[in-house]
Design brief:
Structural class: alpha+beta
Strand order of the largest sheet: 3-4-7-9-8-13-14-12-11-10
Oligomer: single chain
Distance between the termini: 52 Å
Largest sheet: 10 strands, antiparallel
Number of domains: 2
Number of strands: 14
Mean pLDDT: 89
Strand content: 15-25%
Shape: globular
Number of helices: 6
CATH class of the largest domain: Alpha Beta
Length: 334
């Protein structure tokens, strides 16, 4: 039975899911990708049952022709039904790991990548994300919905196919919980959103702005945890991605695609993780949803684990210069 256990020495919850077993990438080398992806429409070994899909009008579940599809994750981290468990006592708190876990297959063609998809299709993917997040957040007992993309084996990718994972759980993850607490304190002290405040300063200074358009801004965070860490934030305040305006999604698709292309050009296609930070509560004045892209260029060693410090050998201002040059080359090639 999957369990959440709270670290008695900190605020973090740990998800224990022994039934899941080890995925192919857990230890040792990973087998090369099969000639036919198990996430492709023609695969007879689909990894999980279809939950939802974007498909032509009149077609049905199981039919070919889908453009985007949500599948039940074959290695469920959580139980789909609430289960009674011993809540533990004082120092040792635990809870049933109830929730929802799915794979979002972003394109039927395994050769496609986020940065090669037409803006129209990527916009459709973002709209599908929004719908799936809203539905997951509406489930009883859900406190947090996490959407992630792992690209490359070193970043945890299991399938050689464009896909994302969505996990809805009854506890908030450590990073978002910390962001929410800090943002709430800032709002209480200054009467405004911390993210809006930082974004206003970054846009004015331009020193760490990678690129921007009318609706979104990509920045290298002032205290970047890893080399070339990049955040994408909406210019206009919004706490939940589930309520993002449809008319801004093409701009998000364009900016996201440009940033990923720039990172690929500057760093020769590194593995990376793309994570959506959002909350389930709509209309919060103190939190601001955003995307975080972390290229996997360094490994955390004993010093990092022992101190909790992230050691970043690249100044964010230097990373921005490299990425701007890559973006300029994109315009030349266009």
């Amino acid at each position: 039975m999957p369990l959440f256990r709270k670290d008695p020495f900190g605020r973090a919850w740990v998800l224990l899911s022994p039934e899941r077993g080890l995925e192919p990438s857990a230890f040792g080398s990973v087998p090369s990708a099969p000639e036919r992806s198990p996430l492709s429409p023609e695969s007879k070994d689909r990894v999980g049952p279809e939950i939802a899909a974007v498909r032509p009008a009149g077609s049905h579940s199981g039919d070919a022709g889908w453009r985007i599809m949500a599948l039940a994750h074959p290695a469920q981290l959580v139980s789909s039904r609430p289960t009674e468990v011993d809540a533990g006592v004082e120092l040792f708190q635990q809870a049933a790991a109830y929730g929802h876990h799915e794979i979002i297959v972003e394109h039927p063609d395994a050769r496609q990548r986020l940065e090669t998809m037409p803006v129209e299709h990527l916009t459709e993917v973002l709209r599908f994300y929004r719908e799936r997040i809203a539905l997951a957040a509406a489930r009883p007992g859900i406190a947090h919905v996490q959407l992630t993309r792992n690209v490359g084996r070193a970043a945890g990718a299991v399938y050689d196919h464009p896909y994302a994972q969505l996990l809805a759980v009854p506890v908030t993850n450590r990073w978002v919980e910390e962001e929410v607490a800090v943002a709430a304190a800032h709002h209480a002290a200054h009467g405004r959103c911390l993210f809006c405040h930082v974004l206003e300063r970054e846009i004015a200074a331009r020193e760490r702005v990678v690129t921007q358009n009318d609706a979104y801004v990509a920045i290298a965070p002032f205290a970047s945890k890893t080399p070339f860490e990049t955040w994408i934030l909406p210019r206009h305040h919004g706490s939940s991605f589930a309520t993002v305006a449809s008319n801004t999604l093409p701009a998000l698709a364009e900016l996201l695609r440009a940033v990923v292309r720039a990172i690929n050009d500057a760093l020769d296609y590194p593995p990376y993780n793309l994570m959506l930070h959002t909350v389930v509560e709509e209309g919060r004045p103190d939190y601001h949803w955003h995307l975080e892209l972390l290229p996997r260029l360094t490994n955390q060693a004993g010093f990092d684990w022992g101190t909790g410090f992230f050691v970043n050998p690249t100044l964010p201002e230097d990373a921005v210069r490299f990425l701007r040059e890559a973006l300029a080359m994109q315009e030349v090639r266009a």
